[in-house]
Write a structure and sequence with these properties.
Layout (H helix, E strand, L loop, with lengths): L2 H10 L38 E6 L6 H15 L4 E5 L6 H13 L4 E4 L8 H9 L4 E4 L11 E4 L2 H16 L5 E7 L5 H14 L5 E8 L4 H14 L5 E4 L2 H14 L5 E6 L2 H9 L4 E6 L4 H14 L14 E3 L4 E3 L3 H4 L6
Parallel strand pairs: 1-2, 1-3, 3-4, 4-5, 5-11, 6-7, 6-8, 8-9, 9-10
Antiparallel strand pairs: 10-12
Helix pairs in contact: 2-10, 3-4, 5-6, 7-8
């Protein structure tokens, strides 16, 4: 795998996950209503037992990863009963293991980890759990359920489903509709999951046919180059699903350079640039499906709940769930203002 492929593999994780519910405002005694903390605001209630949360996150070498770290910091800052011990983000496995061991030695109450590599960091998660420190495993999943108390992350298959359903509903009355797909790196499991979800959704619309698929590399440059190829090969089509908003910047450049329109485009992930284009509504990009970095804010909520021995507000159980899979919501011009604060640069 190339350096780029490796980096993007680490970026998105490789866990196969199923559709689930978006977690917002976890514990039953939230302390503030600050909307800047990523996602929905916590429910304003009294503070509880003080909790020290250790956070070992990624190196912020990409907009989505930077948003993960920002969401965690901001969410923790909204709670008067939470202290955050945060490490310097790293994609180096050995370095992150050392950082986690330091947090264990500091005897933090709960640990939140987005591992550089889920499989390689499993032993660090197990060590924390054995030390009596519950672990919230964020997105890139450890390969043992004993290494974490709760997993929370995104839904790659669900991204494809949401994109396919949106496009399907827009084109359901158009005879012989033609759809193309600009995928991500094909050697990543997450890309296969996104394509499978998309294909499965389109099965419900017999009038729609996917006529082309091109794999890019999750970069602006690759998005522009691969989209240019698609445009040259496909003189007419009705919709495009692009797996990633970063490469979508390049795809939109190719569309503009070719002077093409007459189709709708759906993006993926939830970048601020995509939200702004959707709101402006003067181009082909009409929607994007989320892989939300607000999961880091929710991981802080879950960690606080664990530290205070509480469940999730709105659920009957006394304990937090064992796993939470975030829903890949569709953001279009009707709801883009709501999601704008969560857009990552």
């Amino acid at each position: 795998m190339s350096h780029l492929a490796s980096r993007r593999g680490l970026l998105f994780g490789t866990a196969a996950v199923s559709a689930g519910a978006l977690l917002t405002g976890c514990t039953s005694n939230e302390s503030t209503d600050d909307k800047t903390a990523g996602g929905a605001e916590p429910v304003a209630e009294k503070s509880g037992k003080h909790v020290t949360i250790g956070f070992a996150g990624p190196q912020a070498d990409h907009g989505w990863l930077n948003a993960i770290n920002d969401n965690a910091k901001k969410r923790a800052g909204t709670y008067s009963d939470v202290s955050l011990e945060i490490t310097e983000g790293s994609n180096d496995i050995a370095q992150q293991i050392g950082q986690i061991e330091t947090l264990i030695n500091k005897k933090v109450d709960v640990l939140v980890v987005l591992p550089a590599d889920g499989k390689a960091l499993t032993q660090a998660g197990l060590k924390a759990m054995r030390a009596g420190i519950p672990v919230v495993n964020l997105d890139r999943i450890f390969n043992s359920a004993q290494a974490y108390r709760c997993w929370i992350g995104g839904d790659n298959y669900g991204m494809g489903l949401s994109a396919g359903r949106y496009i399907g509903e827009k084109l359901k009355d158009k005879p012989d509709a033609r759809v193309i797909e600009l995928a991500g790196l094909d050697n990543l499991e997450l890309t296969k999951q996104r394509t499978q979800g998309f294909d499965d959704a389109l099965k419900n619309y017999p009038n729609i046919r996917k006529v082309a698929r091109q794999a890019a590399e999750f970069t602006v440059e690759s998005g522009q180059a691969k989209m240019a190829q698609l445009l040259q090969a496909q003189p007419t089509f009705d919709a495009l699903w692009n797996h990633d908003d970063d490469q979508g910047v390049g795809a939109l450049r190719a569309v503009e350079q070719a002077g093409r329109d007459g189709f709708l485009m759906v993006g993926g992930a939830g970048a601020l640039s995509a939200f702004q284009a959707i709101k402006q509504d003067d181009g082909v990009l009409k929607a994007t499906v989320l892989y939300p970095p607000t999961m880091a804010a929710s991981a802080i909520d879950l960690a606080r709940a664990l530290g205070q021995g509480k469940g999730v507000g709105g659920l009957a159980e006394y304990e937090i769930p064992a796993s939470v899979t975030l829903y890949s919501a569709v953001v279009d011009k009707d709801n883009v203002d709501q999601y704008m604060p969560t857009g990552f640069r």
